[in-house]
Amino acid sequence: MAEELKVFRTWSSPFALRVVWALQLKGVPFETIYEDLSNKSSLLLQYNPIYKKVPVLVHNGKPLAESLVILEYIEETWKQTPLLPQDPFERATARFWARFGDDKVLPSIWNVFIKQGKEQEEAMVTAQGSLKYLEEELRGKKFFSGEKIGLVDLAFGWIANLVDVFEEVKGVTLIDHENHPLLLAWKQNFMDAPIIKESWPSRDKLITKYHAMLEAYTAKEAAAK
Amino acid sequence: MADEVVLLDFWPSMFGMRVRVALAEKGIKYESKEDDLWNKSDLLLKMNPVHKKIPVLIHNGKPVCESLIIVQYIDEVWNDKSPLLPSDPYHRAHAKFWADFVDQKVYGPARKLWAINGEEQEAAKKDFLEIYKTLERELGDKPYFGGEKFGLVDIALITFYSWFYVYETFGKFNMETECPKIIAWAKRCMQKESVAKSLPDQKKIYESVLDLRKIRGLE
Predict the structure, then answer these.
(1) Rounded to a whole number, what is the distance in Å from the CA of A77 to chain B's nearest CA?
(2) Which of A59, A64, A88 sits opposite B77 (nearest CB)?
(3) What global pTM score does this model have?
(4) Does residue B72 belong to the interface with chain A, where contact is any CB pair within 8 Å?
(5) What is the ipTM, given to two decimal places?
(6) Which residues pair with A63 in a beta bridge?
């Protein structure tokens, strides 16, 4: 039976990008379906009734949601170009950092972007604390996963393409040469990697999108006061 | 070389309980070290410097943190008996999705049922019951979330059962009335020795919460 593989995504979703990168790194062909999140397709709602979000992977008619879950499924199904180490302790460590990224790093950086005043300051302190761990984790390594890109790098991919967009739109500095030389080196290596760079979202489009998002959010907050 | 397994734990923690259940399922001998969360041990701070939380599994001196990551680690290392995840990749992913759902959704509202008073508590009750009803639909008529076998999702969720008396008392509802299939499933899980010996008595948890509420000025 011919494989049928579909990825539901948006052009900018960093979570969906992880799935796209994983499949491309493994050389697995798939069909892309772009969603308009303001007008979600009935298929998306059928395939992801719990969260109603992208990404969704549909493999031979069977849907999966949540990017980190999807990444592990991809890893177990297509064994070429492994994204996770074999050793259970190293695997647990990789899962730990991937979760840390989503549970701690992303929310704090997001809060630096959308909050104002004291809340923004507090978010910056938290964000810097989290980024320090990432900087330490990169010591002696080119990528979080070692010599080659792996699951943790894909999970942190949003740091490479979104953080400087947030910095420019908001007028803040999150990652700098003095405090995060390794993270900046990682970012460059990641951005330059073949396959990764072929699916890089347009920076101009991201600037426009997040500019609009920040304006809308700020207006909403002002109206609520 | 004999395996050295240490678990940094805190008796009422539903996250610590998950690891106890997994270790018991696999018949692994381990040393349990109780951590006092208001006076964290040097060992805990050394083994989990990022989150400073239990549970931490220390296997031959190396720490593994985050309860669901620990459970998967246990399953991968001690893979000769009692698999906690199915072998088929799609079913494994399905299990990880629902375990992650429990992690993302249950704790927040559950905690608000007893840790605060007032309007937010009412909203938390609504969320809590909605989430459990979603879980009940996912369970359906299966004996366990994984189907015929007890597994990762069951482990992720059953530990909250030890807190049900707390939730019911402060939330003023009855889980048997609201989610009968969940109660039936919970009782089925409690028949397993690995679960029964890993979960503290519901009344003991309730008493510790009463103390906590006094400290927080809620009583």
Answers:
(1) 7
(2) A88
(3) 0.96
(4) yes
(5) 0.96
(6) A58
